[in-house]
Write a structure and sequence with these properties.
With about 220 residues, the chain is of the alpha/beta class. The chain has 6 helices and 12 strands. The strands form 3 sheets. Strands 1, 2, 3 and 4 form a 4-stranded mixed beta sheet that branches. The chain is flat, with a radius of gyration of 19 Å. It starts with a helix and ends with a strand. This is Osmotically-inducible protein OsmY. Pfam families: BON.
């Protein structure tokens, strides 16, 4: 697929997504790498734009340079954002009580703490990203392993075999102290994303390094 066609496909998909105002988003394409520029009104729109682009056939990488510019002249104070974030995390049933700390500086939220599962880490970020005044989220929450590396590797490989979208034999898994490294080759970006998702879904996984190539 050439750059012009891929760029137009990205623009069309962004305009088709109802939760994004794509009028001020710029798109360039270069050998499968999409660069997003411009600005949106909320951090949620910025994240959604990236997710939309990831699912498009032919996309191999994304350079995310969109700015968040909240609409209107009123700027929500950091302490108010922090209070709302703490409440949202406290109300979320998937997040263990008193495991996450919140810091806000100029609209940017930083999350710290320790949880047992990666989905709990993701849930914390999802709970605060839609708050008014938020321009970005840094999720520094640690996932603390409570299982052996051998068990983690087996769970990931079993997940690969269950996923109809993946050719499990083409992906190699290495696990050490909660860090998962993926190597191999797949045919599409969505296959690579499925492999990453399976790796993150195993208990005790703290980081995932994805060296899988597409081609």
């Amino acid at each position: 697929m050439n750059n012009i066609t891929l760029r137009q496909n990205v623009i069309d998909e962004l305009e088709f997504e109802p939760s994004i105002d794509a009028a001020d988003i710029g798109v360039t394409a270069d050998e499968g790498v999409i660069t997003l520029t411009g600005h949106v009104a909320t951090y949620a729109e910025k994240e959604t734009a990236e997710r939309v682009v990831r699912r498009i056939k032919g996309v191999k990488g994304i350079a995310q340079e969109i700015e968040v510019r909240p609409a209107g002249t009123h700027i929500t104070a950091d302490d108010e954002i922090a209070k709302r974030a703490i409440h949202m995390i406290g109300w979320h049933v998937a997040i263990p009580k008193d495991t996450v700390q919140v810091r806000v500086q100029k609209g940017w939220i930083t999350l710290n703490g320790k949880v047992e599962w990666h989905y709990q880490k993701n849930a914390a970020a999802a709970a605060v990203r839609d708050l008014s005044g938020v321009i970005g989220v840094s999720n520094m929450i640690e996932v603390m392993p409570r299982v052996s590396s051998v068990d983690v590797r087996k769970r990931i490989e079993d997940a690969f075999r269950r996923d109809a979208e993946l050719e499990a034999q083409s992906i190699r898994v290495n696990v050490a102290d909660g860090k998962v490294t993926l190597d191999g080759k797949v045919k599409t970006w969505s296959e690579r994303q499925a492999a990453e998702h399976a790796a993150w879904s195993a208990p005790g996984v703290r980081t995932v390094e994805d060296h899988i190539s597409i081609g």
